Amino acid sequence: MLQVMILSLLAGLATLLGGISVLVLGRPTEKSLAIFLGLAVGIMLGVVTLDLVPSAYTYGTIFTALYGFTFGMMLLFLIGQFLELVSPTAPTQRNMRYLLNMGYLIAFGIALHDLPEGIAIAVGYAAQEHLGWLIALAIGLHNIPEGMATAAPLRMGGMRPFAIIIVIGLVSLFTPLGTMLGLYIVSISPEKISFLLALAGGAMSYIVLFKLIPEARQRHPNYARLGAAVGFAIILFLSIFHG
After folding, report:
1. pTM
2. Which domain holds residue 108?
3. Per residue in 128-149, is it b (16+ CB within 10 Å) or e — as a string?
């Protein structure tokens, strides 16, 4: 249990690492951001297709896997719709208050979907130890650009660096919080492992298809493809190695 909590904490703290990098180095280039996002795409797709979905089928039935996967995608879709409802309409002039609000909303959104990601780490670890490592790696990598996305508008909005670190640090704790919740669910109902694995797969697939891929392609499509190919190759190699 201690090992999986440390993994989850490190994955969550990757958000803080991304935020600090913006404070220290300034705004990342479009190419470097595209590579980071693409890398997260490849790793998360690899984890979903090579480990999460097959493991969900192994531990349950094809119906459980499909149901859990669909539920995971719907959960993240509903969270996204909720965030769009509470987001203010962008004014014609992006003043400091608007930038601060945008930073807070990004932080809120990241915190919300870090919970199911933390659950994914716990469930993956409960199913197979190496799967927990792979999921934590995927989540940690895609948390880095999310930390950048949170820190940039907060800094441009005039927030002090120390306050930004506090905000992003709090957000980073939602991943281990989700892992604690996932460990509790697995402990009281081990038969839910198949459903939760598929749910994690659906949630991660939604993030990849509707968030990461469009954002990465917008930054720089060729560098995004390169990052995705490298990320998928990493997970393929690790899966073969552990297989």
Report:
1. 0.69
2. 2-242
3. bebbbbbbbbbbbbbbbbbbbb
